[in-house]
Design goal:
Number of helices: 6
Largest sheet: none
Oligomer: single chain
Number of strands: 0
Number of domains: 2
Strand content: under 5%
Structural class: mainly alpha
Shape: elongated
CATH architecture of the largest domain: Orthogonal Bundle
Length: about 120
Amino acid sequence: MSSSFWKRISREPDPAEDRRLHIYLSKETLNRLKSLASEARRPVADVAADLVVQALAQRRRAEINLRHLDVLSPRERQVAAWVCEDYTNRQIAAELFISPETVKTHVRNILHKTGHSNRTE
């Protein structure tokens, strides 16, 4: 989607504008949305609004995470990719032909550079 779409829906509402947002969905997507709303026993519009808010938050987190990649060395990026796949230090070491202690050092550096305190964040 274009960045103008994201800017438009994430800005504060203008009181002069119509507060309803019209979104055109495929039949399949609309049916899934209706099913979710039915299961939750909530109005479709409320479920749709919650999903948009969640998507925007997820996008924001992804943008922040991508910015963190810029500070990592190429090897740290490789290690980070394996960490994201839930590999242990020993498994990562075997994949990259380095020692587990070197992996441990890379993980420590990655956590420091990205501002995380543990691998699961």
